[in-house]
Amino acid sequence: MKRKILFIALFLIPVMAWPANEELKYVDAQHLTLVGKVMPTPANVYHRVDTVKYGNMPGAVKRLFTYSAGLAVCFKTNSTNVTARWVTRNKGVMGNMTPIAQRGLDLYIYTDGQWIPAGVGTPIAGKMHLECRIAQHVKPEEHQFMLYLPLFEELLSLEIGVDSAATIEAIPSPFRHTVLVYGSSILHGACASRSGLTYPARLSRSTDINFINYGVSGNGKMEASVADMLKDIEADAFVLDCMPNPSPEEITERTPYFVNTLRKYHPGVPIIMIESYMREKGYSDQQVYDRCRRQSQAFIEQYELLKKQGVPDLYLIRDQQAIGTDHEGSLDGVHPNDVGFERMAKQYGPQLMEILKKYGIE
Amino acid sequence: MKRKILFIALFLIPVMAWPANEELKYVDAQHLTLVGKVMPTPANVYHRVDTVKYGNMPGAVKRLFTYSAGLAVCFKTNSTNVTARWVTRNKGVMGNMTPIAQRGLDLYIYTDGQWIPAGVGTPIAGKMHLECRIAQHVKPEEHQFMLYLPLFEELLSLEIGVDSAATIEAIPSPFRHTVLVYGSSILHGACASRSGLTYPARLSRSTDINFINYGVSGNGKMEASVADMLKDIEADAFVLDCMPNPSPEEITERTPYFVNTLRKYHPGVPIIMIESYMREKGYSDQQVYDRCRRQSQAFIEQYELLKKQGVPDLYLIRDQQAIGTDHEGSLDGVHPNDVGFERMAKQYGPQLMEILKKYGIE
Questions:
Q1: Is residue B8 part of a domain?
Q2: Which one, of A83, A41, A72, A86, lies nearest residue A171 by Cα?
Q3: Is the minimum CB–CB distance between A144 and chain B shorter than 8 Å?
Q4: Where is each SGNH hydrolase-type esterase domain found (chains A, B) (predicted)?
Q5: What percent of chain B has pLDDT over 90?
Q6: B75 lies in which domain range?
């Protein structure tokens, strides 16, 4: 505990001291605007999927869909402070994630026509009940805010605190359309340094289109039960960025049912398959290299087979170098770091938009 | 503990299973090549400064100089595996750092004329005695490796494990000259995602010049006792990137002694002052904005005053936007993320090299 306080102290700058006598009022974030969702989740509003209704999915997939990755709370307030109180189900520490990204909060403010970061909610190690002053000394005018939720933890509750005399209200969602992206840990957000820096979050801010994060770390394996869940979702486009998780054999076996199910239940809606990049470890680890090549090969073969069979509105984005060519875009040899995510957004963004535009999604 | 194993499992890909019957031999990293140091540290070879000899420095500064930031172990081996066993003094968790960067390891391999990442050593939460397979399935040929050490922890011991039949040997340092950079947490490495991605580490790899990391998080306050330590160091250049830590008043008060001491004891050696960037929080937090402006003003005034007084070989790099203009180069509104560090290296690199070249440092 002493170490922890020490660590925190090292990173504070003097102006950030928290006045003890200040009055705040809290609102439950459920009464504000929750973006990034596409279905009701009665068990917990911060889940991404109703895992009771879709109980046939594998246990790991269901658990991961209870994580609040890609969700954000939007509101406007004239408060000079934004504080949060939140509770996560667990307090584990991941080796390759910052606690801020894993189970913290990431606040953006809308300024001069752009969403810019305004502060983070930093978890305290070992605690599930968290509280943090995220922004302060903000000009006392009405501002719009967007607060990204934890990437790798289930959020049990969230309250937003503002100056006691300030107003705080829901706002219309800043994003339009629904582009559902299903995939692996890379999509899910490993290893962004904070939750606003995943590539779907970046794409949503830069295009104003709602990219829905259905990343399930290590488990984007295209099970039939997941396809059967996705068939109920009214999306304007589906993107499959799951190639890193299934084995080459699973790709060959599962892609037809997965794509055909989406095709059948969502006629006329584009389905975009994304080839993943060569994981950086592959440049030194021969087995990783081989596995990545075989996954790519199987994924592309399935795409070509489905095209040959006449599946309409099916697309493939090929990009083995989506995180760049200087080898510095990964944290751990598998997942992008923030540099990698920036590059992915820049690479995928225009290619996705070119396809989406044909369908009026722009 | 169960959660931890779960988290780790989520991030593993099947090929990375560790064969139980494999034989390894370990060598103490002290017998290999340690780069990033400029003085002997009898208490612990992985300290940056002999904090017994320079006992007058403030306690926090001394403690931070025991952290192995910027140090790396270089060696060559024909092993197909690289494993590490290491011990850190503490096991604290920082909210804005990955455990990999804080007290883990970051391995590079020299391939096709370039250092590229080959894997990371991931700490297990709650454990000080750590062990990790960092790279495997490497082609069984001789390769050069560079292993970056923890940024925010004291390293007590480190052993490198290789195939029992392989050779492992020290190599000459890959870097030449000595450019000592003194500064704040930003220099120290907060919030790089791994220790090879701090800006001095990036500059060293891209220029082959030894940029020494004397960052002391939150404590780069230009105390006289630190100047008195630096006067003993035989560097080819000194860079001061400490502006974010002292108050504007401390900058005004301390810069003359700090610079004049370096000037007196290192005649003819360039001293380069770097103006820090506007911390991102400053774009929403009015107090942070004001403080940053006043720090800049005080730092530049001191530079101009010293120039007017005729201090030779003194330079200033002005750059309020070193982490970019899109506001996404910071993790927590203060420290760069990997995007910010990439941009800093690109911004500072050419400006530093232009000055250093005049002194034959190239």
A1: no
A2: A72
A3: no
A4: 178-352
A5: 93
A6: 22-169
